[in-house]
């Protein structure tokens, strides 16, 4: 069985978990306190980051290469289109959420509110929280624009781009940092993603000291 070293609210780990679940690959989840830099974990990934996946006898790190390996070795159901231009758009949006959204939103909200407390690194920086709360509005508006022109974020079919976005937003939704009333079309998109069987284990996550909001597990939020 595959084994994933992860942190429950990490959007990068969640992206890998969604890919594995969509492909119906059974996986053992192992929570890893990567910030403690345990020697065994550092041997698995000298970068000291999660996710780390053991699959097919290979130890893999970095979420996007992991997801692309899964796609290449288990191509059905497909999360990357066959057309090169469409694949480019999926990869562009995966980078958008894992780089730009992460830097401007996730790191300012989730990391300040949750990671600092868990890692015992002090209190949230209010200026970072304010910046993240402002930036997420821009990103939700951009998603609304995309979805106004497409069925899914990158085109007519659900793709890894949708999983990347949902991974970040679900982590933020756990701490009630997403204004779903800002865009009905984004809310409907998230409801579609959230109702997929692949999302079930995500919705079951619990972080000690951080209970999820009442709507978090509700598919009709």
TrEMBL record:
Q: Which GO terms describe its molecular function?
A: glutathione transferase activity
Domain named GST N-terminal is located at 1-78
Q: Name one Pfam family in it.
A: GST_C_3
Q: Tell me, which GO biological process terms does this entry list? A: glutathione metabolic process
Please give the InterPro entries that the UniProt record associates with this protein.
Glutathione-S-Trfase_C-like, Glutathione-S-Trfase_C_sf, Glutathione_S-Trfase, Glutathione_S-Trfase_N, GST_C, Thioredoxin-like_sf
Q: Which residues cross the membrane?
A: none
- Residue span, GST C-terminal domain: 83-215
Going by the entry's taxonomy, the superkingdom of the source organism is recorded as: Bacteria
Kindly state which keywords UniProt assigns to this record, in alphabetical order: Transferase
UniProt feature coiled coil, ranges? none
Q: How does it assemble?
A: Homodimer.
Protein's name in the database: Glutathione S-transferase
Q: Which organism is it from?
A: Sulfitobacter mediterraneus
């Amino acid at each position: 069985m595959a084994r994933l070293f992860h942190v429950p609210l990490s959007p990068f780990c969640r992206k890998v978990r969604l890919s594995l679940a969509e492909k119906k690959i059974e996986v053992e989840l192992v929570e890893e306190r990567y910030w403690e830099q345990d020697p065994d974990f550092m041997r698995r990934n000298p970068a000291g980051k999660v996710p780390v996946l053991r699959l097919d006898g290979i130890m893999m790190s970095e979420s996007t290469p992991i997801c692309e390996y899964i796609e290449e070795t288990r191509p059905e159901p497909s999360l990357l289109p066959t057309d090169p231009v469409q694949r480019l758009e999926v990869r562009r949006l995966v980078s958008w959420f894992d780089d730009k959204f992460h830097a401007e939103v996730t790191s300012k909200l989730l990391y300040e509110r949750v990671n600092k407390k868990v890692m015992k690194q002090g209190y949230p920086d209010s200026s970072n929280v304010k910046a993240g709360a402002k930036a997420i509005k821009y990103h939700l508006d951009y998603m609304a624009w995309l979805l106004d022109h497409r069925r899914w974020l990158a085109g007519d079919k659900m793709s890894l781009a949708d999983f990347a976005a949902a991974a970040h937003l679900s982590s933020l939704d756990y701490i009630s940092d997403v204004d779903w009333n800002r865009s009905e079309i984004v809310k409907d998109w998230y409801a579609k993603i959230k109702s997929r069987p692949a999302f079930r284990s995500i919705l079951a996550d619990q972080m000690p000291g951080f209970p999820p909001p009442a709507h978090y597990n509700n598919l009709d939020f």
